[in-house]
Amino acid sequence: MPDVQVVVAHRARATLRVGDVFLKVDPDRAGIDAEVAAMAAVAVPTPRVLWRRHPVLAIERVPGAALGTFGQPSPVGPASWVAAGAAVRSVHRTPLPGRAATAPVDGLARRLEEACAWFLAHDVVPADVVRRNRELALVALRPRTTCFTHGDLQPDHVFVEHDVVTGVIDWSGAGAGDPLLDLAVLTLGHPEHLDHVVDGYGGDVDRDVVRAWWAFRCLTAVPWLAEHGFGPPGDYPETAVLLAAAG
């Protein structure tokens, strides 16, 4: 009989693994609905839905290995990252329910200011590190047209085998968004593969905006992780990225 493994667990949701089945426990019905709808809509491989009974969604394991884990070297080569870039382009071509619109930045700006205030109140990094990364992050908050995005495209959500994408998982954040944020989240912990991802993605990608999203992502992620019990914020790889960007 297979063991029950806790993949991730915090106050918002939990994911368990039993053999080749993953059980996602999420009290937010809208999030589960969005995840199932997104997996049905995109033209990339996704986990097969086995059953759902609120608040649990059961999905099948996808084959292959993850592109990487934030804070650790990637176990796959450049060709797999190129393939991931092409898969992201396919996701972004998924039609939105309505016409694409220019996304407001007010809410994002508030999140950024609240995160910076949290850093200063908790003395996680020096104030000049917060200031420098805030300046970088503001570059991402420009008017832009939204498209269908994954919403949380971490490298351990993309699986590959023989340089082919075999599955993209965790679609609860899917919906209208900035395509460059998907590229930023994918490459945040592996900047050496940004060019490979862009090669696969194609088109004109503003790398400065991608780097700006790196700063925004780290600034806003650290308070959330700390408040959800992920350990001392000084130990997070996101904090290391902030320090390096301000160096």
Automatic annotation (TrEMBL):
Stored Gene3D superfamilies: 3.90.1200.10
Domain of life of the source: Bacteria
Molecular functions (GO terms): transferase activity
Residue ranges of domain Aminoglycoside phosphotransferase in the record: 19-209
InterPro entries the UniProt entry points to: AGP_Transferase, Aminoglycoside_PTrfase, Kinase-like_dom_sf
Alphabetical keyword list: Transferase
The name this protein goes by in its record: Phosphotransferase
Record keyword Flavoprotein present: no
Source species of the chain: Pseudokineococcus marinus
Keyword Cell division assigned: no
